[in-house]
Design goal:
The protein has 198 residues and is mainly alpha-helical. It has 8 helices and 3 strands. 70% of the residues lie in helices and 6% in strands. It has a 3-stranded antiparallel beta sheet with strand order 2-1-3. Helix 7 runs antiparallel to helix 8.
Amino acid sequence: MASSFVVGDKFKKRVKELLDKESSVPTDLLQDLEPVLNEDEESRVSFKTVRKLNTFLQNNGHPVYLHELLEDSILHLPEYIKPPRNPELVARLEKIKAKLANEEYNRMTRNVNTQEISRHGTFTDFGRQVRSAKAAVLTVFNFLVTVVAAFACAYLGSQYVFTETTARVISAVIAASVVGLAELYVLVRTMEGDLGEP
């Protein structure tokens, strides 16, 4: 916690001027301020000394305010010295941390049973999941092949009707879109039937 100011040259200069003008300066205030005023480097002055100086200036009617004197000064904050930790407390904290980590691990692995997995657990479901994924991949592949085949058929078949390539491509895209939408409709109806919805 701060208990002193690091004073600058402005403070020293102003205080010297004020003390030179004044003859009735208390001796304890002079003793506190002399080392500060005579040092060339930055020096510290305690809050107590600054309070004495402020009281002295106010009592003698000087038109100088304390904030003007301390304008170029800064608070001196002593370096924080971390107290040594109690070894008993450190051991207790480590014990509590280990206990909490163990409880968290037990909570995470509460549902895991290795014997169940090897006998009839998730590995039995694995084959069903592979079959389901295989069916989905085949459905997508079938959809793509149908749309591409419809495009190719319409493109090649339209050469007898249209002579320009642009018209052939447009007619092939329209035919592929119609076939794709019909295929999607059938696919959605099939999925609804698999899910049990009418």
